[in-house]
Task: inverse folding
């Protein structure tokens, strides 16, 4: 469950901004969940829930948005989505789950076969926005 | 967009005492060997020691230290692998023996991820096997890790010394703590000029490591309990003592 560590990171950021902004009430936290990392949402939510137990935010303020993983080849310019890539094995997916950059180890451009491609979107866990109350 | 990993890295490294990147501006000087030997030496002397291999594209510390590359155990993060008494983490845990074709920004992303999800047990010393050069990894270490103290590896080669000088100059310019310089691959009776190089940049030559033809096998053997040749063991023991006494 290394989702716990990522949930911990998200909460740490929210907590920092909460403190830096005079402990204003947290209204919403929008979290982008990139497809590439294959986050188990149940484990991630459980992590949030447990870590939030002693904090002044409730899980209700957290909103999740899934983002498809898209790539572009630096060699030939072809763009593709994760779902368009030939299926990866279980071990390869597991490696990418731990460390999304392992995608560069196991994936190749479906157009020209180059390992030199960029991940454009959908890597892992990022915070899209945090809204604090004005009062 | 906010990267939440940046808010947790400091806390992940709280159980770690000294953070010591073993670096050089030149490849092939024996950074990994020195890092591995020092890690073994510290752990043998009872220091709780870890080794983090940040040379993603040329990861080799796991080979030297005979680390079995299973996926790390998960427990509110990932647990370092173990070899002997050492805690160990490397991109190789995920890439095995495949090539790791990463561009600079991807190296930084991978490093942030590893730092954010690795749960280190309390360590007195975390050695970092750095990649060659003055690039993303050095700047990321300076940016994200608390109080790194650099060890700089050179060899008797004048070419290497010239290149290593650039790293020492940069670290000096940035006022980064350098514990000292290690001269590796030294032949008996050789003319040591590393002391002058270290002195020029306000640091010190910590010691010399003798050239050994089969050094890789010797390190791996040491993990399995075979003694190192006396001159090598003595050199590493002396380096370990000097690094330990340079604490703080």
Result:
């Amino acid at each position: 469950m290394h989702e716990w560590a990522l949930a911990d990171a998200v909460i740490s950021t929210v907590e920092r901004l909460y403190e830096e902004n005079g402990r204003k009430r947290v209204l919403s936290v929008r979290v982008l969940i990139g497809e590439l990392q294959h986050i188990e949402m149940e484990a991630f939510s459980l992590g949030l829930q447990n870590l939030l137990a002693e904090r002044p935010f409730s899980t209700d303020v957290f909103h999740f948005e899934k983002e498809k993983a898209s790539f572009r080849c630096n060699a030939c310019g072809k763009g593709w989505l994760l779902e368009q890539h030939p299926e990866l094995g279980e071990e390869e997916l597991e490696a990418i789950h731990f460390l999304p950059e392992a995608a560069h180890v196991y994936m190749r451009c479906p157009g020209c076969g180059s390992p030199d491609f960029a991940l454009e979107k959908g890597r892992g866990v990022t915070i899209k926005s945090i809204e604090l109350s004005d009062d | 967009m906010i990267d939440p990993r940046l808010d947790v890295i400091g806390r992940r490294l709280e159980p770690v005492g000294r953070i010591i990147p073993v670096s050089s501006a030149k490849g092939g000087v024996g950074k990994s060997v020195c890092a591995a030997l020092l890690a073994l030496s510290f752990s043998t002397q009872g220091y709780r020691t870890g080794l983090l291999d940040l040379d993603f594209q040329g990861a080799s510390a796991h080979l030297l230290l005979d680390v079995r590359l299973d996926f790390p155990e998960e427990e509110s993060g990932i647990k370092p692998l173990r070899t002997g008494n050492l805690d160990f983490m490397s991109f190789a845990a995920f890439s095995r023996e495949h090539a790791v074709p990463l561009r600079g920004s991807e190296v930084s992303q991978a490093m942030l991820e590893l730092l954010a999800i690795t749960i280190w047990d309390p360590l007195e010393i975390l050695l970092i096997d750095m990649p060659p050069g003055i690039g993303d990894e050095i700047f990321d270490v300076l940016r994200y890790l608390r109080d790194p103290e650099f060890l700089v590896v050179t060899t008797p080669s004048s070419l290497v010394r010239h290149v290593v000088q650039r790293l020492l100059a940069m670290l000096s310019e940035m006022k980064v703590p350098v514990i000292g310089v290690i001269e590796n691959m030294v032949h008996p009776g050789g003319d040591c000029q590393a002391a002058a190089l270290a002195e020029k940049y306000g640091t010190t030559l910590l010691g010399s490591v003798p050239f050994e033809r089969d050094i890789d096998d010797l390190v791996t053997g040491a993990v399995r309990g075979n003694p190192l040749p006396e001159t090598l063991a003595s050199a590493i023991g002396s380096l370990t003592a000097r690094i330990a006494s340079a604490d703080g």
Summary: Chain A touches chain B at residues 1-2, 4-6, 8-10, 12-13, 15-16, 32, 47, 74, 94-96, 98-102, 104-106, 115-116, 118-119, 123-128, 130 (CB under 8 Å). The mean pLDDT of chain A is 94. The helical segments of chain A are 3-20, 41-52, 90-98, 103-106.
